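Morning!

This is the sequence you dropped in the shared folder:
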Amino acid sequence: MERIKIEGTEKLPAILFDGTNGILKITGKSIPENTKEFYKDVIKGVDQYMKDPLELLEITIHLEFFNTSTARELLALFRKLEEVKCNCIVKWIYEEGDEDMLEAGEDYESMVRGVKFELIEIPEDL
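The structure's back. Tokens below.
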């Protein structure tokens, strides 16, 4: 299965998609100029993965900040998982006291049925 690795920058998140091991990680800040283009390969990789998925896909999202176009891409990803009834878990990680990121995770959890979310608060200094 496909492996995608993108190094993060000041405006782009680090992404690791390892379909062989059922892991997708998105970390950092996500404010790309062309969000659809940036996430295109990840969405395509997940589409390929869904044709022959493992028992579990573990998705870790740990974003400090993301723009509204990233929010739409994340929702599209979560809805795709919902459609194929993928056995997956989204670990939504947010820093202690970051109410905006907690609310974003809660919003996604309420909008997407059939995808398990774990909202994980971590101390600011980690």
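Headline: Strands lie at 3-6, 14-18, 23-30, 57-66, 88-95, 116-122.

More detail when I'm at my desk.
O.
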